[in-house]
Amino acid sequence: MRGEFVDIGGRRLYYYAAGSRGSGDPVVFLHGFPVASRLWHTVVRDFPDGYRLVVCDLPGYGRSEAFPAPSCGGHADAVVALLDDLRITRATLVGHGLGGGVAQAVAVRTPERISHLALLDSAAFGVIPRRLRRLARATRLAAPLARHLPPALLASLVQGTVIRGFAVPEHSRLTVDSSLQPFLTAHGRETLLGHLRALDHCDTASITPQLATLGIPTAILWGADDVFYPATVAERLRAAIPGATLDIVPGAGHYLPEDAPERVIVRLTELMAR
How far apart are CA 145 and CA 20, in angstroms? Predict the structure, then answer.
């Protein structure tokens, strides 16, 4: 496993590679809010041999530099640029939460480059995640005051909400704590506020009509106890994407790669066999 930075429009984007090149298309993993690439550590560690795995920190998360005006569309531009830099012409794209919205944007823009699509507890249809909605709107409406909040206080407010998205909160500590570390500075506070504003103004609704045109084998996986995106969003996605399958996982929350990594691996390998 190795981590590297690539230059995307003059800003650094971090990714790490694992597995082996194998004979199939690479598998690219995109995380959700507010976590970074660490979300996938168990899935990547236990993934079957023979696959090239690429896991990135989206702009402004983890080790990646923030890009102006974060949005699903902007993140999608960065992901396509990463694929270009790594000379990946086709890939299985796996997106969780916000990363699922990004994956949809990449798929509708460059469908010829996506061999399979997996959406886990995904942003979609412009739906603002429950529980985070109030915090996102408060930081937008009170932007001048929010900019003066101590960075640690803002991060703790996010942490207190996000931790409820895990089926076993104790399992979230390392993933959430490490992911929030970059936001514990004045610059990090501005970046986190930008991410929260993006949640309150999600642009996934703009690509909804194009989902019906996708001819990509798609699997949708959802935690039955997701407190941010209800299963009705999963049902809408299945209906919107032709031939999509849906697996709702009992006892799992929003952060499915942490709550049920074995189930995620099984469904991904099944998807890539289609």
Answer: 49
pLDDT digits (tens, 9 = 90+) for 136-176: 777 665 566 667 788 899 899 899 999 999 998 777 888 99
Which CATH number fits the domain that encloses residue 268?
A: 3.40.50.1820
Q: Looking at the chain, list the stretches that DSSP marks H as alpha helix, in order from N- to C-terminal side.
A: 41-46, 72-85, 98-109, 132-141, 143-146, 151-162, 173-180, 186-200, 208-211, 231-240, 256-259, 261-272
Burial of 19 (0-12, 13-18, 19+ CB in 10 A): middle
Please determine, for residue 89, whether its predicted confidence score (pLDDT) is greater than 70. yes
pLDDT in tens, 97-135: 999 999 999 999 999 999 999 999 999 999 989 878 777
Give me the domain span that covers residue 19. Answer: 2-128+203-272
Cα gap 103→190, rounded to integer Å: 25
The helices-and-strands tally (H runs, E runs) of the chain is 12, 8
Domain count, the chain: 1
